[in-house]
Amino acid sequence: MWTIVCFIEEDCVEIVPAFWFKNGLCAWPKKNVKKNVNQRTNPNDIEFNYYKARALSKDIESLQVARSRLIRAEETSELSSYDFDKSTRRKRHQKHISSDDESECDYQMKSLNSKTKKKSDSKYGNSSQFVLKDPPVFQNNDGKFILDIFILKEKT
Question: The pTM is what?
């Protein structure tokens, strides 16, 4: 079995044999890293150092599967085997606002809109080449509103 770990101090992600990671510490070879990983060498105090780490994905059945998951692990901070059974399409988190908050939300949107336009004037000098589009507002099945983000796009 294999484990994908994130070394805390170095902030890097690696594949290691599962038995290298225990109690928040991960063994790491001082030299010949690739050879020791592939051969699943038993760690010892002479040839290995121990570093603080956290497991991002455990009990991976093969090195090949672990390598494919490593790519995703480098892009995200949390992994689980459930994540890999689902579609790999990324989903954006959306802010949900109840309909009771609608009037407050409208006020905040107008306020944010005017602030953003002022910033775009000063940042880009000539604001006539940019358009600030209002975010789309959608309503869920449960009656709550979902707001998307503001997007500043160059006129075409």
Answer: 0.48
